[in-house]
Amino acid sequence: MSGPGPGRRAVVMAGAGALAAGVLGVPIAAGWRGRSSTGSELRSRLRLPQPFGSPLMIPPVLEPSATTADADHYVVRQYPVRTEIVPGYTTEVWTYGGTFPGPTIRSRRGRRAIVEHINELPVPTAVHLHGGVTPPEHDGYPTDLILPDEKWDGHDAHHRDVTVRRRTYEYPLPQRASTLWYHDHRMDFTAPAVWRGLAGFHLVGDEEEDALDLPGGDRDIPLALMDRAFDGSGAFRYPAVDPTLTHPPGVHPPYEAGVLGDVVLVNGRPWPYHEVDTALHRLRLLNASNARRYRLRFEVEGGDELPVVQIGSDHGLLPRPVGHDAVELAPAERFDVLVDFRELRTGTRVRVVNDLGDGSTAVVMRFDVTRAVADGRDVPDVLSPTFERLRASDAVRTRRMTFRSQGIDGKHGWVVNGEPFSPDSVQATVALGSTEIWELTADFHHPVHLHLAPFQVLGRGTGGPGPYDDGWKDTVDLRPAEAARILVRFDGYRGRYVFHCHNLEHEDMMMMANFDVV
Ligand code: C2O
Ligand code: CU
Ligand code: CU
């Protein structure tokens, strides 16, 4: 099972050459240009549940199986579970540790987390810690698979480093306090595996964050947003070409631009409600959806709106808090925000609405203020005195990367610099410790994510950064026909890493490339 086999990849590469001139051009499916998300909505075939009918679930925090002086050890079994998501139905989900989302891992900066994953699912998996500054052999490279058994033969060509049944990932976490997440990353099949449930939070804390005395305990709430669709039996609907996720990959037309669902799940529950007290709360918002973008506002029943104070982005605290009327999140982005319920009376309800959704997706969840307490906590004026701003003058070079649609082997595909993903082809060789400017250009919405190296957004088009570009990022939300410039410092480790579009259907349909850190 090792070494590059004469699999589908070779065929695809040959086809790509022939079609590079764009025989298929830009196949714009009606309806996805100019929309707020790139993708097509799949409708559920059951009667949708009433919004605010289920309580919010907070994923359990995973207990270490062992701790040593400098490391916490964990074991996570990956296995299918039948669970009730839509009241009255059961849904099979693929889980990390039996819950959807998976259990939350809580780590400290500089203290290693060592996570053994055991694959009891019917297909190979690869676990990526999104946002982790991780050595390459532990980063969940898309061909570093955990096979379900020795006999697996599912056309997964190009195995780089395969294990059977189990694999131990080591995360040194030499990074700032931040909201990270882990999810499946198997080549060609990430989108359907994540859709089935393979995602969870991994939170990193540090002393700088502790010193702020931010809302904690029940008032520090991780919220993973995922849209899904269900069939009449309660199973997840997903337009996979091969529903066994063996071969071939991809989705049926017209979903190649991205799969959107009509049910919004927050931590695995449809449009949940959550009871809060009259206190300042910290919400760690994660867009874990395959393709959907959200613009969230907090509407107080009766008219007013609560402002949202952003304190952190993908890679931790901003230098100072930033106030917003709404928060816009592309897939994989995280926004750490404070929402202030202190002035509200008990009995007040606050709906989280989504300006980018229509109908059932225009609302996300509801907070119900049920208890009056005195909360003397306030939003700190300064969050991260040690925040380091990168300077464009430190960049040793500028590279251009384009993200656009292209026919691949007669089918719809998505490419980086005209090339479909291949584990053997490298788009950039960068020096460890160096800083570069990357100019990223898009045809449609493409949330572009770099592994290993967090970055800062220098500007969009001819202007400066957008309102949601602050802080250290690992994913930047490129909008149609837009170029964004990012400043990246390649600190961490040497080796091969991927960067890709985090619209997961685009990723599976080849919008991914390698960079080598040397
Ligand atoms: Cu969320 Cu390649 O990652
Ligand atoms: Cu990542
Ligand atoms: Cu994309």
In words, what does this structure look like?
With 518 residues, this protein is mainly β. The chain has three domains: 6-23 and 389-517, Cupredoxins -  blue copper proteins (Immunoglobulin-like, Sandwich); 66-210, Immunoglobulin-like, CATH 2.60.40.420; 217-371, Sandwich (Immunoglobulin-like), CATH 2.60.40. 5% of the residues lie in helices and 42% in strands. The chain contains four helices and 37 strands. Strands 13, 14, 16, 17, 19, 22, 23 and 25 form an eight-stranded mixed β-sheet that branches. A hairpin with a 7-residue loop joins strand 3 (71-83) and strand 4. The longest helix is centred in the N-terminal third of the chain and has 12 residues, at 8-19. The protein starts with 7 loop residues before the first helix and ends with a strand. The model is unreliable at 1-34 (pLDDT under 50). The structure holds CU-O-CU linkage and copper (II) ion (CU) (2 copies). CU-O-CU linkage (C2O) is lined by residues 128, 130, 183, 185, 332, 449, 451, 498, 500, 502.
